[in-house]
Amino acid sequence: MIKEDLGRFIIVILFSLLAGLLTSQIAICLVAGITLYGIWQYRLLHQVYDWLQSHSESNPPEQSGIIDALCSEIDFLQSRHKQRTRKLSGFLKRYQQATAALPDAAVILGEQGEIEWANSKAADYLGVRWPQDNRQRIANLIRHPRLSEFLAKKDDQERDKGLQLESPVNKTQMLEFRLIPYGDAQKLLMARDITEIHRANQMRKDFIANASHELRTPLTVISGYLEGFDDDKEQFQERAQTQIKQMRIQTMRMQRLIEDLLTLSVLETTRKNPLNEVVGVPDMLTHIYQEAQEVSGIMNHIFYLESDLDLWIKGNHRELYSAFSNIVFNAVQHTPAGGVIRMRWYQDKEGAHFEVIDNGEGIAEEHLHRITERFYRVDKGRSRDKGGTGLGLAIVKHVMVRHGGKLQISSEHGKGSNFRCDFPVTNIVYKSSGGAKSSLSA
Q1: For the domain that residue 219 is a member of, what is the CATH number?
Q2: In the chain, count of helices (H) and strands (E)?
Q3: Region at 228 (left for phi over 0; alpha for psi -120 to 50; beta for the rest)
Q4: Cis upstream peptide for 131 (omega within 30°)
Q5: pLDDT tens digit string along 307-323?
Q6: What Cα–Cα distance (Å) separates residue 358 from each residue in 51, 298, 368?
Q7: Which of 168, 193, 218 is the last residue of a domain?
Q8: How confident is the model at residue 63 (pLDDT cuts 50, 70, 90)?
Q9: Both 425 and 360 in a single domain?
Q10: 3-state secondary structure of 141
Q11: pTM, rounded to two decimals
């Protein structure tokens, strides 16, 4: 290729020199020859340019040498590009067909939440129609503040929890939304029909609530009679007294279980209350500290309480008392006699924190992700013997969610546990006490 172009250039130089010798104008003839050669090469390059502009519909310029090699290489690259384009188009078509066949609604969103593609289920579930709604913002088509807040979340963990909302098309249909980031600032919004699951959960909640209410009255009556028998125990033989005592213990256990079920039912079925109540957590913890000592009894646990008296929070007093006392009493139940239980109420740049640390039995790692499930027990036999209902930590988890906080648990089997309730900075209210701190130990 280079030899052919070099040969033509040498021929032009020789003809120019020959013409210069004949006319005695060597320099002028050389300049004229090189100029004409350059103009000819420019014409060839312009033909190549026109050929590229015509998207290879015309034939490339026929000229041996570097121009021909260049056109052949371009033609090869264009052919390979077409093959790749057809292959990618096939992949995209199959992807769209697969996504369109999904039983869930799928919507691809751009960086600003604009709709770039949607399957047919998106019209049935969300009212989003493709391609009519192309480039429309999803927030303009589905006007719901909770969905807008969900789409704006940056925390992957918060996003992974999903969002349950009624369908904007059918109010009797319940949808679960999932947001999956991918590509260059794109997101895939999925909406799944969970109407039957939601209905089943609601039936379960209603059943538990109704059954608990119905059981409360007969248990109260039974407990009253047993208490009367216990007051007149001299009238009964020793064996009967033992039986009455066992019945009273089991009745009290059933009453605690029902109370916890009712509490959990209220937390699950009622809407999140506005956090308008200012809760004096330090005074609350003092009461829980005293109650924990009574619960400990002959176990003689060593208690420590460190509390920031100036640190109050916005929340629900009854719910917070239930959550904090459940954590503390749980530590009392699972810490051997003479063990140490530390309670701390403090703040840092992340927010306010209630922490309970014990040196008790601890929890094996495989149980940590499940211990907030209702009725889940690490050691079923021992937990029942100690009077636990298996609902305490489930109540704590729900209370923390309703207060915008999180329950953090770390533990190691045989080395104790650390339970921490984290509240956001927005919940903090300061009582003017000069930043005093209280410490109690027993």
Answers
A1: 1.10.287.130
A2: 14, 14
A3: alpha
A4: yes
A5: 999 999 999 898 899 99
A6: 81, 18, 16
A7: 193
A8: low
A9: yes
A10: helix
A11: 0.60
